[in-house]
Write a structure and sequence with these properties.
Helix content is 37%, strand content 27%. With 329 residues, the protein is an alpha+beta fold. The structure holds (3R)-3-hydroxy-3-methyl-5-(phosphonooxy)pentanoic acid.
Length: 329
Amino acid sequence: MSCATARAHANIALVKYWGKRDRELNLPAAGSLSLTLAALTTTTEVEFDRALARDTLVLDGEPDTGGARDRVSEFLDLVRAAAGMDARARVVSGNDFPTASGLASSASAFAALALAATSAAELVLAPAALSVLARRGSGSAARSLFGGAVLMEPGTRGDGEDACARSIDDLSDWPLCMVIAIVGGGAKKRHSSRDAMDHCANTSPLYQGFLDAVPGDIWAARAAIAARDLGALGAVAEHSALAMHAAAMASRPPILYFQAPTLACMHAVHALRDGGTPGYFTMDAGPHVKVLTLAEHAPTIARALDQLDGVGPVFHSAIGGAAELTQCP
Ligand code: PMV
């Protein structure tokens, strides 16, 4: 049967997605805006085979029979339903960055899986429909199908067919760069974003405040991108990340992703900025710190963060392109 391999990049949200309007369909409560990162890539091969009794998953070289395989299998059920087929699949997926580090692996993983699985099933989907499908695997995966700066629309329809992402700027003339500082030795995250955002929506008095700020943040981020204004874009990114984390921290019981080195990185970024090196931090559902800057300043920022206790490795990435099909081996 047919086989396909796809490659997708991770993305980092500058305006965060945090909370759903529908858990079953994985519909976001608000929009989000991200940058796709060239240096973080997932490559996934999918082969449907009628002889298989069930779906199998090999993740970073290790057979997986647990939660990851079940999530992949549930996702493949959507592809099978859309394609009108019932063959099980062999899925082999690998990241070129540490999977356990808590970096945004579900985004690139489900984007690559959506593209490879639909192609292997000979299902032809327009980009928006592919993004709708990827969203069912992970909200941020809807964004990883596209390159450059990517806008996720929350949509208004109950069936979620208008909740999808698109590239709004390829950024090819603006050398933005993301410095990524791993904190906590890359240990697995304590609260999955999926559970944490639900818990936050249900218990945090600050959740509504975060949501209310999103449309204005997206507007400001788009204006900053159009004007190629790093300072304005960075200010939105820091605000959105801190608003998300403030809402999470005010949940009962609290969700606290920051560790001491996370805060040390944040202060170092502000100190560098005071000294004339522009950088703006953002953090997701984990302790790591990502710093938005220009390529020329990335080595200075990476060096400064790498010197802090409990921080490392530190690397940096340019802006990446759209997910793409590659050859089947
Ligand atoms: O795609 P999910 O369900 O793992 O959620 C991603 C949530 C954040 O990374 C914290 C924010 C974002 O917009 O990527």
